[in-house]
Amino acid sequence: MKQLKKNIAIVCGGDSSEHDVSLRSAQGLYSFFDKERYNVYIVDVKNQDWHVNLDNGITVPIDRNDFSFVFDGKAIVFDYAYITIHGTPGENGIMQGYFELLHIPYSTSGVLVEAMTFDKYVLNNYLRSYGINVAESILLRRGEEDKYTEEEIEARIGMPYFVKPAADGSSFGVSKVKNADQLAPALRNAFMECNEVMIEHYLDGTEVTVGCYKTREKSVVFPVTEVVTNNEFFDYDAKYNGQVQEITPARISPELTLALQEQTSRIYDILRCNGIIRIDYIVTKEPDGSDKIYMLEINTTPGMTPTSFIPQQVRAAGLDIKNVLTEIVENQF
């Protein structure tokens, strides 16, 4: 008897400022998936509007009671959800909780890990307890804008520093503050995106990023990508408008490459992640000339357009992204 194809939902969109970026990741994933093995559909989620985008241009609403849809009188029930939402509700545990209730396997880590990795301040302080180096930071909640004076912040964090949303999956709302006069507008900018804001020490060094996934049979850590931009930092324009140079493999020593890959694998295990993650780092130089690795953030739904970091790293590793996605899906059956 011929085995039935699994129905795969690529869940994209979301409610953050990166809704449209997520749609591009969904298109990339759709092109990567093995269509001979799976029936693949793109599900666009935004607020209360959940619908399937079919190949013929038709959109069909999703029944959120069981995450299904009806087309030509036939009910389509999904066997697996590949979540590629950047931001809420796909990167903070909300969508994961929904799929847990429906007993539908999904591509990301679980509810707790997603909530933790989405909140940069919580994540940093959790991983600090495992000896992971992270930048010094202060957390401010909405209404606490005047909790610290400019002088207190500079004394504790140094100058310059970053002001960024503490719990957000995007590059929106991030500012580099070089003098005290820039603090108030930077806070307003960040609070437009999130109710909690981090003021974080600026680290001067080489920015790199490393992807990783694990299954029951194997552990795969991808080559390191070096991120070079003339912008003040790796902002939205650098990420999505080509104002960046991405070099894979990175122009770093074999020893540093191995250290970054080992730390990525270790963090994956500490958090008990699932699916593909990507961890961003800054590597600084110590006074004696040695390298020091600082973790910046963990992306549990990394971009998946053909030019995104993960597909680049997969190609550099000599792997086929189609096979990688199949391994991730089949690992949960």
Please describe what this structure looks like.
With 333 residues, this protein is α+β, with helices and mostly antiparallel strands. It has helices spanning 19-32, 94-102, 111-118, 120-128, 150-157, 183-191, 236-240, 254-271, 309-316, 321-330, and strands spanning 6-13, 38-46, 49-53, 59-61, 68-71, 74-77, 80-83, 137-141, 161-165, 175-177, 196-201, 206-214, 219-221, 225-228, 245-247, 277-285, 291-299. The strands form four sheets. Strands 12, 13, 14, 15, 16 and 17 form a six-stranded antiparallel sheet that branches. A five-stranded mixed sheet has the order 4-3-2-1-7, covered by helices on one side. Strand 5 (68-71) and strand 6 (74-77) form a beta hairpin. The model has no long low-confidence stretch (mean pLDDT 92).
What is the number of strand segments? 17
What proportion strand?
Answer: 25-35%
Helix fraction, binned, reads 25-40%
**What is the residue-averaged pLDDT?**
92
Query: Major beta sheet, specifics?
Result: 6 strands, antiparallel
Structural class: alpha+beta
Topology:
Layout: E1 6-13, H1 19-32, E2 38-46, E3 49-53, E4 59-61, E5 68-71, E6 74-77, E7 80-83, H2 94-102, H3 111-118, H4 120-128, E8 137-141, H5 150-157, E9 161-165, E10 175-177, H6 183-191, E11 196-201, E12 206-214, E13 219-221, E14 225-228, H7 236-240, E15 245-247, H8 254-271, E16 277-285, E17 291-299, H9 309-316, H10 321-330
Parallel strand pairs: 1-2, 1-7
Antiparallel strand pairs: 2-3, 3-4, 5-6, 8-11, 9-10, 9-11, 12-13, 12-14, 12-16, 14-15, 16-17
